Amino acid sequence: MECTRFLVRPGHNDGWLIEDGRRDMGPYHSRDLALQVAVSECLALRRAGRPARVTVADADGEAIVKRCLCASFGR
After folding, report:
1. For the whole model, what pTM was predicted?
2. For all residues of the chain together, what is the average pLDDT?
3. 15: which residues sit within 8 A by CB, 6+ positions away?
4. Residues contacting residue 12 through CB under 8 Å, at least 6 positions apart
5. Neighbour-count burial of 13, counting CB atoms closer than 10 A to its CB (0-12 exposed, 13-18 middle, 19+ buried)
6. Which end of the chain has fewer CB atoms at under 10 Å, N or C?
7. What is the pLDDT of residues 41-56, one digit of tens each?
């Protein structure tokens, strides 16, 4: 089963967005808040037995941080 990616990225105007392939969430007023929401969503999928990861991108769309929560994250 392929990992579901939660992409945290700057919005077009203000704020930060989260994309997971099915929907967009946000905008959130800060990257930290968007990241907290993305991690929470990832952990919910992980509890359901599905693999998930978080990626943070800069304004150019380049991934600057990736963290897969499929492994032993949070154990």
Report:
1. 0.87
2. 90
3. 26, 27, 28, 29, 34
4. none
5. exposed
6. C
7. 999 999 999 999 999 9
Geometric angle at alpha carbon 41, from 14 and 68, rounded to 5°: 100
Residue whose structure tokens are 């599905």: 50
CA 42 to chain CA centroid, Å, is: 7
**End-to-end Cα separation, the chain, in angstroms:** 21
The H-assigned helical ranges of the chain are 31-47
Q: Where are the domains of the chain?
A: 4-68
Q: Which residues lie closer than 8 Å to 47 by C-beta, 6 or more apart?
A: none
